[in-house]
Amino acid sequence: MSSKITVTDRNNAADETRKEWLRVLAKYQLDRECAGSVKFWSPRLDTASRDELRHIQDEKLLALIPFLYTNSEFYRRRFDRLGLDPREIRTVDDLILYWPVVTKTEMAEDVIAHSPYGTYSTMSDQVWAERGWMLFSSSGTSGTPRAFRYGQIDRELWAWANARALWAMGIGKGDTVLLVSGFGPHSFAWGALHALEKMGVPSLTGGGMDAGARSRVILRYSPTVLLCTPSYALHLGRVMQNNNIDPRTTSIGKILVGGEPAISIPATRDRIQELWNAKLVEFYGCTEVSPHVGGYSCEALLRDGPAFAHLMEDIQIWETIDPVHSKPTAEGTAGLTVCTSLMSESSAQLRFLVGDYTVLNYSSCACGRSHARAMGCFSGRSDDLINLRGIKLLPTQIEEVIRSVPGVGDEYEIQLNTDSAGLDIMTIQVEHPAFEEGSEISSRISSAMRTQCELRVGVKVLPPGTLPKTEFKAARVKDQRNK
Ligand SMILES: [Zn+2]
What we know:
This protein is of the alpha/beta class. It contains 14 helices and 19 strands. Helix 11 links the parallel strand 5 and strand 6 (254-257). The model has no long low-confidence stretch (mean pLDDT 92). Zinc ion binds at residues 298, 300, 310, 365, 367, 369.
């Protein structure tokens, strides 16, 4: 009898905290069904003052913490382990002061201990069975996949937030979007699709076909926006060129990329924009703090201007921390991204370490939006950092060097090995039509690596078409060093 009462009590508490969280959420879900103005989907939220944004974050956080504490075992255990009463966190400042960042490792350990979903979500088996919808997961490339069972409430919020982001990019009536994706359990393309449905913008789904078929879709139906990974934008454009179709003459005027860094790498951004004669715009985020877009381009991002992306601060709290001590970095200083997701039923997270390097800027943007911007966009995750003989660098820095050399193919491979003397070495493999006289290409790349990355590397020049083609998310670093 007593155990029944306990379960009922907990369910009542769960219901009460959820009701309050939903009430606050609804209060700030403005312009739910359609755009509030030509320039801003949600004018009041998109242009709110910095004080107003902080007030919204504080109010949402105050409702979120009891909801999370009551419904997520992972978070309840963490509060208890830290000896922290959830009522002690009432503001964003309190959160940053008292709550250490949550890492992927902590979440992965939780999944291993409570397979297959872990306990960080508020979505219990019972809620999942009752409300259903869709499962998304992290790729698991750097460990155990972390799964998220998103519910109907998440779907609605997701479509609304992503519609605001697409609107900011200048995507709307008159556009048709071709979504090239495998439509796996990753949130990028699905999130855009739901937003397009809400916006009443036509979409073409380009899954399950090869590049030849996709190029015929472009020629036949004249989409104005191409959505894909940066690697695929290059691949598709090259396949069209090989078939004597010039991508520059097609209907595509905008390329919306996600899944890999792109705008932060000037040489990659230039290559894609040149190849298609189109403007590159970007979605940035990760499955753990999805659904909802994290970073997004706006119309003030000029085709050849400085790179930056907005963050949506009324639904998420973004900060950067230094990688060594995990302390907040000063404004204008580079750090690793940390996100508190205030607006997901399944995946509300408190200070999750997303771990991309960027610099946050809180000054208002030429587009009129007041939300923080990640200057230079996002140059890669700390998980991907290569440490070679004590020198640390991101693969994106190497990509910038390689793609700055004219005529070098889009594909490349970074090989890390240990030589017979026990020294760790890097060899970069690239493709070039003049591979037989590759020494000039090779010395250009190795000398640029020395000056820009302070690293001596070997370079191998191969005939075009030798390296494996990257269709979706690229895996270009092969680490075969002796551990
Ligand atoms: Zn802007």
